[in-house]
């Protein structure tokens, strides 16, 4: 919307200093004002940066003026060797402010501040014009003897198998075959070895395409992933390690069909280079059809195909998604594609009206398809649809845009409403969005499927930072609503200082008050009006090492409830409790970012001090960074082997054996083997078909080995009869909408789920029956999930027949039957919570029921609000987001502990009383902060996780990003470092740049893998692709829409990592071009290095022509030889040693759409010229370029 999007901040570059910059130096001074100004001001609230340059135009110092909490400058020193290469990367140092003037003695200040003579990273470069990195040493004395090393070579004869893909376009059949191996020196071979000696080998052909990624497990075993291309250089097959191992003795011939279909990724393309068919391991073929504009209009998986159904998407003339749904079409893919191509022309949906799925839709239904079974979602732009509710601003300063396009500013081009249908019925959730005069979303109104609504409004300051947020929620008409007010206070650099929270007319609560160190790292958080004061400590790498460090040695923890110590490169506990039983699984100090040990002490009962010796877990890993053992070390006897997990894997990361112990008799530390599991898989694939428990102990994994585990065509587990899960039904999103559990004849249980078409769970309906000798009791519980507000309604019905034990005499934990319920999650004392007013007769009847409100709780930034008790619940969480200690003030204002948990490495609770139960409580949210289900599984959103066996039950929706791993594995088998926030992709943990809280980032922890830290003055975008955030560029020339951070393997000959962005101009002078720059990480665009916008007509695709070529295969960098083609983008899949300047540009075409990576700041120039002044490559770029592809887990 050209006439609307107004920048929320301005960037001024001065040639004359207004502050105390050093005028004898070359410099660029930038200010990002955080409050409105009319003229340049040095006193206004702002973020100011001064960058100084030497006589050659190279940056030599960056001064972040008064950036520390105490007003000190945070200064980064940059220096070069005799060849102009930056080999040392110094960490930034806080120094007394000179108001922007150049600082002297930065290196000594950094050494003093960090207390380490090695407050810098160092790269050893090759003595050749290639300047290739030979080794990298990260900051800190402890890392000086543990470099990351690189080697550049060529393959030897017979080292790499040669696979060939052939495709017949007449029959549309593809074949994979094996030819004699590559001869000597035919492939480029690059080897990287990380700080702990783990080696990755990458082999590429002369075109730069990756053919093999080899992870070295031992001297005799490798995990090989092969990439096979067809005659058109399109990725046709990916052969994961288990499949590669299955054909290791095959020297020539056709690839075995069984291995191909069970383990490999297969892709087919049409004549327009569009991916039209694909098959993932564990799933049947999936089809895709397109319109003439190459827009994906329909997809079909195997389950949909059995019913002749397709998922479709309709677009307007601007390519915006208008609505989606399910259509009926009996034709095969070719027939459907031909029909769309020949019949629907531009295939653009237009305005109109018709009714479908119980909703009036304001589109004409003219585009493909027209034979619609149901509509799933509808989007409206520009103009609010009929029936839009009114919106009265809560904050007087919010002047809302209207949809009157005749005004100077309006909602034209903005999304204004979206409707999403329930999958299981025709009820809808209707969402409306309101904008202020700057085009910023400030209000929303969501009408839920029950007829209630949630209204949210934000008061934003000049920079777009929320100052206040108001939420009003009503489940349905006729009930009382609830109002939540939040207030935020920031410091001079917009770091969050205080967060206030108020429910209805209750007293306002100070949820959190934050303190930061000079590097803006969160060092203390006071929660609940200082109910607890939580300290955080970091090492020189910026990795969190302690929570409440100083209290660990105090008997009563100094009044605190939890102390936690993460140890990376230190090991204080035992190496191995039993070298014979756990041979080769030793705890060692780790330097590559893996965690060697964690210590903790927790107060679980007030007035009872924990053991003075911390509890401890020591972790062992293999050379693929997979967790092989977690040894719990009892404070009294670390060799007791209690609460231990030990695992073995196949080459794809499928667990083959799991050994688990616990303490069954409380009060001693004698370990009992509760699980000794052996896993079996279907036909050498990834599908788990059975588990045998040699221990025959029903305490841990409660299953019998007599039952096979079946799957549907999409790879979804349909039952687990050995655990009593008799059936699981799925919707088209592969989400379980009904689970039947038969504990035995007398205890059937059913959980039904209602989902929206976007995958959000709206309702859980459980029905359980307990049969007694006199009668039976049927309990129905309905849990509603509405915008974070969680409700529960329970009804009991006594039936007049018996036939089983007396209900009150049986605890599920004591039952000898096979069941899904975990003892960790269900015990008799938890069947009725102490606060529950119900009184139940021992034979299953109800004596009395007192009326209670259904609303149970809703989340806050620091835990939950218990609506039943009007109580704020705060939580100590570990680095994985696991709830460890929950606490709050009771009705008397006194501190109380409400829940405490310890976990096995793969997420099962330690077995102890009082640490878990069901009943619609916030206490169900435990491991990774996810909700524990009655089935013993955790609901992550996209999938349900089974912590007792360490696996998912369905294929990863993003399996193609993790091709070297089983699509059923959890957290790439390293649950101590990674978590899976939504069941689709693993995340690494970082610090939030505004609050400095430790959170998770979908760039797989770049600090850990790339050797960077938050002290490197870089930042990371974490964007939600489902809800893109608009970032307005300086100088008012356009808006950047952040879509998502993507990591992917070779796709059509392309691969790597990118942040997908879109540039929308807001005036006629701005050219809608594509641009990118590179460095080590992804910082905020404000106040960083300038990049360039290249207008479309000047984009050089072939590196020579001003007009550019349309042939993607000719694309290359401006500064690289023509042999480095498009596939060699300098990211995760980069060519070793490629010289990449900061303004190097490479466009990528992914599925017909243009994407690009941006890893530094940018400025938009309102002119149609390219201004390049490329500096030399920096060490940070080298780290990202050379190290990332070797150290990061490959997807």
From TrEMBL:
Q: State the signal peptide span.
A: 1-19
Q: Report the residue ranges that make up the DUF6443 domain in this protein.
A: 37-149
What name does this protein carry?
A: RHS repeat-associated core domain
Q: Name one Pfam family in it.
A: DUF6443
Q: Which organism is it from?
A: Chryseobacterium indoltheticum
Against InterPro entries, the record matches this protein to:
DUF6443, Rhs_assc_core, T6SS_VgrG/RHS
**UniProt keyword terms in alphabetical order:** Signal
